[in-house]
Amino acid sequence: MSGLFGTPPKGAPDSESDDTLFDLPTEGVTGPPSVHQSPVPFQAPALATDGPTPSASSPIPPSPSPLGVNKSPLRDSTGSFDNPLFNDDGEGSGAVEITADGPGADADSSVSSHANPLFEDDEAGDDEEKILRDADIEEGVFRVDSPLTTPQLIGGTPLLDLSQYSLKAKVKIMCKCEYLNPSGSIKDRIAQHIIAQAEASGELRPGMTVVAATSGNTGAAIAMASAQRGYNYIVITNKKTSKEKIDAMKAYGGEVQVSPSGVAPDHPDHYQNIENRLVAENPATYYGVDQYNNPYNTEAYEVTLGPEIWHQTSGEVTHFIAGGSTGGTVSGTGRYLKSQNPQVRVVMADPHGSVFWDHIVNGVAADDVKVSKSWEMEGVGKDSIPGAFDVNVIDGIVRGDDEDAFAMCREVAANDGLLLGGSAGLNLHAARVLSGEVDDGSVIVTVFPDNGVKYLSKIFNDSWLESKGL
C-alpha cells in the first residue's frame, strides 16, 4: 500500500508543486465538532507522491458491478429529510432519526401537505423490507402510484459504476449522479434544508426576501426553493460563473447580481460580503442563507447524502472523495459515513491554488490563508476557510489542475456519453488517482455535483479553452 493512508513511499517530494497526496494523523483525534471554524491542533502529515499518472484512455476494462442492485433510497415525501427508510429502528440501520422538534423537523404545514400516501402508514414497526415492498421497488427502481411534488425529486440519486476509470481492476469507483436533482445540482439538498430550518425557527417569514452568495449552483437551488415557497430572492455571484448558470438563476424570476471575480475575501465587492451587507441593511425583510458558514449546509448532507451512499453500497464504501467550496458535502457526508464505520476514509479533491491545502497540510490559520494561484473550475476550491467545513473529518487530499478536471470531462463525454461539470471532472480525476493508492477490494464513492450542460460555453468550447491556455 502506498502513501495516502499508510507509510509514505521513499523519496516523497517536498516541493509544494508536487504535493498532491498527503496522510493525516489519526491518533489522538477526538470526535468532530458540529461545525469546525478554526484549525485543529496540527501534526505535520507525511507527504506522498502525486500517485499514478492517468493515461489518455481508461487503462482498466470495465468490470461487473460489485454491489449488486444499487437501490436508491426512498425520497422524502415532504421536501424535508424525514425519510422513513433511514429512521433507526434500534436494529442497527444506522440512520439519522429526525424528530419533530429536532434539527430536521418539517418547516411548515404547507410543505407537509404534500406528503405521499406511501409514507402515511399508521401501523407501527414498519421495517425496510415492508417499505421497499409497498413501494414496489425492483432492480433499484422506485415507483409510486401517486404523482410526485418537486421537493420529492431531491435526493435519492442513482449510484453510477464507473470502475473502468480505476487504476486497479479490484478497486471500484462509484459516482452519485447529483446533477439529476431538479435544479440540476447537488445544492438542492442544502437549499431546501436551510430554508426549511429558517422557516421553522422564524428567521424566514412570509414576505421576506432570500439572499444568497453563490458560485452558481446554490443560487439556482435557492431560486428554485424560493419559487416553490413564494419568496423573492437575490443571488450574488461573480464574473467567473458561466453564462448558463447565471441564466438559470434568473429563470426562476428573481434578481441576480454579478460581482467582480478574483477580489480578496475582505473586499466589499466580494460576493459573500455583498450578501452580508444587504442583509445587514435590511434585517427585517432579508434572510441571508450564508451557505459558507451555515451548519444546516453540513447537516443536509449528513442526513441525506451520507445515508444514501451507505445504503446504496450496502455499507461496503471504504473511501469517500469530494471537492469542497463550502466544505459541506465532504464534511457532512464524511461525518455520517464515519459514524457507521470509523474506518471509512474521507478525502478532499481540491484545485491547485485553493486555500484548503495550506490550512490542512501546512497548518496555516484560517485567518492567514491566501490563494496561491487562480483556477477556472467553478464551485470547488476556496479563497477562505468556511465555517461549514469540518477539518476533523478529513483524512487526505488529492489536488488537480484545470487540465486534469476538464480533460476528464471530455474523456467521459467521449467514452461514456455523460456531460460532467468541472467539479465532477475533478472528483473523478481524484478518485482515479486515489484508486491507484488504496488496497484491492476498496470501494471509492464520489459525487457528480452538476453536469456539463451548465458549461457548454466553457469546458466544451474549444475556443474558450484555447483562450485560457488549456
Task: Describe, in plain words, how this protein is organized in 3D.
Residues 1-126 are annotated as: Disordered. InterPro entries: Cys_Synth/Cystath_Beta-Synth (IPR050214), P-phosphate_BS (IPR001216), TrpB-like_PALP (IPR001926), TrpB-like_PALP_sf (IPR036052). This is Tryptophan synthase beta chain-like PALP domain-containing protein. Pfam families: PALP (PF00291). Residues 152-450 form the Tryptophan synthase beta chain-like PALP domain. The protein is α/β, with parallel strands linked by helices. The protein folds into two domains: 16-66 and 158-181 and 296-467, Rossmann fold (3-Layer(aba) Sandwich), CATH 3.40.50.1100; 188-292, Rossmann fold, CATH 3.40.50.1100. 27% of the residues lie in helices and 12% in strands. It contains 13 helices and twelve strands. The protein has helices spanning 109-112, 128-134, 188-201, 217-229, 243-251, 271-281, 295-303, 305-312, 328-340, 356-360, 402-416, 422-435, 462-467, and strands at 22-23, 46-47, 159-161, 172-177, 209-213, 232-238, 255-259, 286-288, 319-323, 345-351, 396-400, 443-448. The strands form three sheets. It has a six-stranded mixed β-sheet. Strand 5, helix 4 (217-229) and strand 6 (232-238) form a beta-alpha-beta unit. Helix 3 crosses helix 4, helix 3 crosses helix 7 (295-303) and helix 7 crosses helix 9 (328-340). The chain is globular and about 55 Å long. It starts with 21 loop residues before the first strand and ends with a helix.
